[in-house]
Amino acid sequence: MTNLKSQEPGLTTVAVARSVGYSTQQVRDLERLGVLPAAERGANGYRRYQERHVIALRAYRALAAAIGPVPARQLMPTLIHGTLEAAAEAIDDLHAQLARSRHEIREARRGLDAVLADTTHVFDDSDSMTISELAEALGVRSSALRHWEHEGLVNPDRISRSQTRRYSARAITEARIVAALRAGGYRIPRISSVLAQLREQGLTTEARSLLDERLSDLAHRSLALLEGSGRLHTLLREQRQSAGG
């Protein structure tokens, strides 16, 4: 195992940047943001990095691939300066979020297949939901569902007199498809086109393809998170050993 407490002179900013595929300015910016531990300064005032900084940058790169650069930048300082136990809990939460997203996409696929088969035995009236129930199930705000309705993406039924929204099995399926694709960064016009095809022509190749793309993307994100977790574990363990020693 690499000894992070090496007495070597240190790495220059250029050397660190090259080792992780970043620019020197990116390395300086990430250090300033706390994504990696502060570097020591040599007698000449230049930064002197160690291998632990390279590990931290590679952990950040993997984490950014898993959850996005901005959330990764926000989370890394807490991970590298906190306890190993706190870091493990934070990583577990990220895995849980990815698992939930994967579950939601599979539910969208299941509902899509049921709609395409035009079956009625898969759902019954007890499967309908109110707006608050559906929002909670999808992990979105009720205002998002109202916005999707305004855009014509989801069409709930209206209970007479009270005009309360009630989402049928088909509306729930459409909402799941919208939620899955919005989480993947697809814009409303693209999603609207997919749903229009589904409603008018029964064309499903694009809808299935987009949902499959989301599942594939989540698989890559999960693997990136595993890589980042391993690098963070190495970094934090060595930091703890160094502090104890």
TrEMBL record:
<keyword id="KW-0678">Repressor</keyword>
<dbReference type="InterPro" id="IPR000551">
    <property type="entry name" value="MerR-type_HTH_dom"/>
</dbReference>
<keyword id="KW-0175">Coiled coil</keyword>
<feature type="coiled-coil region">
    <location>
        <begin position="84"/>
        <end position="111"/>
    </location>
</feature>
<feature type="domain" description="HTH merR-type">
    <location>
        <begin position="128"/>
        <end position="197"/>
    </location>
</feature>
<dbReference type="InterPro" id="IPR009061">
    <property type="entry name" value="DNA-bd_dom_put_sf"/>
</dbReference>
<dbReference type="InterPro" id="IPR047057">
    <property type="entry name" value="MerR_fam"/>
</dbReference>
<dbReference type="Pfam" id="PF13411">
    <property type="entry name" value="MerR_1"/>
</dbReference>
<keyword id="KW-0238">DNA-binding</keyword>
<protein>
    <submittedName>
        <fullName>MerR family transcriptional regulator</fullName>
    </submittedName>
</protein>
<feature type="domain" description="HTH merR-type">
    <location>
        <begin position="10"/>
        <end position="58"/>
    </location>
</feature>
<keyword id="KW-0804">Transcription</keyword>
<keyword id="KW-0805">Transcription regulation</keyword>
